[in-house]
Amino acid sequence: MMTGFRLNLAPLKEPLGFIKFVEWLTAIFAFGSCGGYSGMNIVSLFCGEGRNETLNVTFSYPFRLNLVALLEANTTLCNHSVPVTHLVGDSASSAQFFVGVAIICFLYSIVALLVYLGYMHMYIDSDFGPMFDFGLTAAIAFLWLVCSSAWAKGLQNVKDATGTAGITSTLALCKESDVACEVTDFANMRTLNVSVVFGYLNMIVWAGNAWFVYKETRWHSQKYTAQQGAGAGRGQQVPAAI
After folding, report:
1. Which part of the chain is the MARVEL domain (predicted)?
2. Phi, psi at residue 58, to the nearest 5°?
């Protein structure tokens, strides 16, 4: 296949190639802002006798919160015996789905750019190439909608489980009348919020790119040719009968 390689950077100046490069960048930001996350909340326990205790809650991708220990061993806090306790919830499926789609898009964008820049002459002459490209681009746009929505819900579940209300409902000690629990230092989840934004941005970019890929298919060329033929037919005048 390398015998047909002809390097041509011109497609990068056109929407077809330029948008594909943008898709490559946004995919990096999407999985990078989610896949490498790690944060810690500090939970303060206000005991009845005026003495305070603190707990550190560390969680990270893929957010299997049910495996994150609030207390790793039986202990005594605020003069109460507290058993081993874990957070509640598991957002791993939505987080890994989101990151998986981003990685697939990252790899496909590289392959597509290689085709555009080195094999554009073969891409244009082929019916299969543009049609396959269009079908996959449209499918990926839909996948971005699904995985971004799922991850947005998963992220909200993470926030709820690691917030004051979630900790209070999970830790039995917090239900004691002489103990109050509060998350006094929250992990910075800005990058996770950004990942959701990039997810929906990717959906928009891929959906827009589907139009430019569609213009390379024979479906568009046949429709355009038919419209041109119909326009030419209407432009012809029928000679008047003598």
Report:
1. 11-218
2. -105, 130
Give which of 179, 156, 141 is closest to 47, Cα–Cα. 179
Cβ atoms within 10 Å, residue 238: 5
What are the structure tokens assigned to 76, written together?
Answer: 């005594």
pLDDT for 171-195, tens place per residue?
A: 888 888 888 889 999 999 999 999 9
Give me the residue label for tokens 């590289």. Answer: 110
- pLDDT tens digits, residue range 82-138? 888 999 999 999 999 999 999 999 999 999 999 999 988 888 888 888 889 999 999
- Shortest CA distance to 78 belongs to which of 43, 46, 101? 46
Rounded CA gap, 108 and 105, in Å?
A: 5
pTM of the model: 0.84
